[in-house]
Amino acid sequence: MRAIQLILDPKLSDEDRFLLETDFFDGLSEPMKNGEEVEISIEIQGYDHNKTLLSILDDATVSKSPYTIRLTYKYSAKQKEDGIPFDEICVLVKDGNTARELGKLLEHKKIPYYFSKFDFSKSEFVLWLKDCASWVLDDNLYSFSDLSRFWILLLENHLGLLNEEEKLRATKKLYSTLQTSKLYLGKLNNWLNTIEDKLDLKKVLDNSTNFQEEVSYYTRLQQEALTGSSISLMSNSFQK
User: Fold this and answer.
1) How many CB atoms lie within 10 A of CB 176?
2) SS (H, E, C) 9-48
3) Are strands 61-64 and 37-45 parallel, antiparallel or unpaired?
4) What DSSP designation does 118 have?
5) Burial group, residue 134, by CB count within 10 angstroms (0-12, 13-18, 19+)
6) Is 137 a residue whose pLDDT tops 70?
7) In sequence order, which residues have a C-beta less than 8 Å from that of residue 41 and are 6 or more positions away?
8) Quick one: which of 117, 111, 112 has its CA closest to 93?
9) Do residues 126 and 115 touch, judged by C-beta distance below 8 A?
10) Alpha carbon distances (Å) from 108 to 113, 117, 122, 181
11) What is the C-alpha separation between 139 and 35, in angstroms, rounded?
């Protein structure tokens, strides 16, 4: 019935006609990716009294005794014009809440999806750390004022609004911490530990209501740092 509906039901939208992997035979491996097709054919008789239809459907006629037309539809994984399958398309969203809402919509439309977690380029905090690392390597690459501005934003999310004197102290502490961290450029883990010890980053993030999602990114970055990556690798890896 579903196959007949796909051909004859004009109420179905284009999205309702999209194929899912479950529409293919279970024995096929990655049918969407491998370009497998689902072919549906339906034959119709009893229209030969209508001369107009006979003329219109002449190309679809497969028998004249009795008059029979065959409608055949082929369904396959749709591709973009540049040849990239839809199952390889990535959608970027601004935060986790937006991603969850998108996931609900895709589930409602029965569109397969998955979330790519711990993409560090999605993390404002990790990108800030990357910029700090770049500044430590070459203070001409980034403006320290921009680094300080984000640091004040983090602190105010944690502590509330700071007065000018408190902002100045926080800025000086960030500057001295980054200068001290130059002694630990050899390994990313040592550099991160120095920044963490001086600035208490984990505590700041844990108590910053607007940066709760950043905690998991920071934790993952710390885990990655244990592999022995250098600070220069961290700085360069985001510049592609």
Assistant:
1) 11
2) CCCCCCHHHCCCHHHCCCCCCCCCCCCCEEEEEEEEECCC
3) unpaired
4) -
5) buried
6) yes
7) 70, 71, 72, 73
8) 117
9) no
10) 12, 22, 26, 49
11) 51
Amino acid at 92: L
Q: Cα angle vertex 139, ends 133, 141, to 5°? A: 80
Q: Tokens standing for 59? A: 């190309």
Cα 60 from Cα 15, distance rounded (Å) = 27
Q: In this structure, what token pair is assigned to residue 219?
A: 């934790």
Domain ranges for the chain, please list them.
Answer: 2-78, 82-116, 121-236
Residue 68, exposed/middle/buried by CB under 10 A (0-12, 13-18, 19+)?
Answer: middle
The predicted-structure confidence for 173-213, as pLDDT tens digits, reads as follows: 999 999 999 888 777 788 889 999 999 998 988 888 788 88
- Where in the chain does DSSP place strands (E)? 37-45, 61-64, 67-76
For tokens 């001369």, name the residue: 51
